[in-house]
Amino acid sequence: MKNYFFLLLSVLLLTLNGLLYSQTSPWENISTLIPGDSLNKLSDVIVVDRWTSYVSSSSVSEVYRSYFWAGSWETIQTPSPITALYFLYYSFGFICGTDSNLYQTTDEGQSWDYLGSMGDQINDIAFGYYIYNSKGYVCGNNGTIGIIEDTNLVVIQSGYSTNFVKISFPYNEEKVWLVGDSSVYLYDGFTFSKQFTSNVKLNSIYFWNQYYGLIVGNSGYIAKTTDGGITWIQKQNPDPINRNLNDVYLVSYFGFTVGDNGLIMKTTDAGETWILDTGQLTTNDLFRVHISGGGVEWGPGLAVGKNKTALVYPIVVSVDDKPGPANIFYLYQNYPNPFNPSTTLSFFIGEQSFVRLKVYDVLGNEIVTLVNEEKQSGKYEIEFSATDLPGRSGSALTSGIYFYQLQIGSFTQIRKMVYLR
Predict the structure, then answer these.
(1) Rounded to two decimals, what is the model's pTM?
(2) Residue 370 pLDDT > 80, yes or no?
(3) Do domains 22-318 and 329-419 have the same CATH topology?
């Protein structure tokens, strides 16, 4: 009865609030396009690029894939219902089953290889990029995490009894942040420590480098750190009824947080302030949100949740429209990816700096230096051709995975790209 009363009160307040604001929303409800029963619980989402996205279900043993320009979704069978998923690119990804097992595909989900079991429920998965290999982490119940490296899963006990519900692993850092119950935890590759405890249950965490991160939780709680999680400053929430927040995701300064009863809020300044989306496209709880960060534009975004709810944010945001803060450096995902024979590598620098941009193979051998000079602040695009390498006349790359590294002083960021001949 108490929950029913709260739902009625929420709808009433949202209706009254809607009288004060515009009822338009840039989001679109695409729930009817998702295959399956209307009670299907969509558990996770990843937008690989501007064309391809994957959505998982914890109700049935299925993953759904969409090519945005086609406007349709296809069903991919999985070994079990899914709690979380992550795709590094359109054909290569991982799923975490409700059976506590981790699976990998290298052929767009046509087959799934068993990598190992966590022995308990897995709640989230995240990846980072390295010159030598790709490395990922999963987290689960009873203080358990797993390290994915070279197709192996190594399970580690943190020593804490909390259920880790969300994990964040910046691309260029050996630090892993987790949330469980009301606390933030840090794993530095050797030991676990509890960094911070709030007065509410925390549901999601997202770090975009070793210093800057956001956490969200129940009762509309939002906080930001600028010192690697040592201190957290609570941010103002414009939601008049402080609904629970379930997930948060950013690409540089631009991002979203989603929550109960269809709540969506946007930030355009890296989480300092938040704007409430008053269009109210659904009253179903939203569990996860993700934005594509590939190429020279950001978007689209997808939010998924209860009762097969799926919302798309089709508007892409050009990085030329609004550069980040003056002390921010950022390396974008190459576009297109995979590529043949050329692709564009882009980066943003917030102040005049000496810049190095290099390409490596999977063994760590340097292929080519594309930039090695002083640059003024701004956004730069460099074309990389696998068949026309500077200083290597007549040589061409073989198909495979390569890495490109941006280095500016002590700042380093690495991303992966795939060359298909």
Answers:
(1) 0.71
(2) yes
(3) no
Beta bridge partners of 186: 177, 193
What percentage of residues in the chain have a pLDDT greater than 90? 55
Tokens 């795939």, residue located: 418
Query: CA geometry: angle at 181 spanning 179 and 185, to 5°?
Result: 35
In the block, tokens 């700042």 appear at: 411
Every domain of the chain and the residues it spans: 22-318, 329-419
Let me know if domain 329-419 sits in CATH 3.40.50.720.
no
pLDDT of residue 379: 79
Q: How many C-beta atoms surround the C-beta of residue 384 within 10 A?
A: 24
User: 174 phi and psi, to 5 degrees?
Assistant: -95, 30
Q: pLDDT for 292-318, tens place per residue?
A: 864 445 668 899 999 999 998 865 544
| Banded model confidence at residue 393, pLDDT cuts 50, 70, 90 | low
CATH of 22-318, picked from 2.130.10.10, 2.40.10.10, 3.30.300.30, 2.160.20.10, is 2.130.10.10
- In what side-by-side order are the strands of the sheet with 113-117? 82-89, 92-97, 101-105, 113-117
What is the secondary structure of 177-199 as a DSSP string? EEEETTEEEEE-SS-EEEEEE-S
3-state SS class at 395: coil
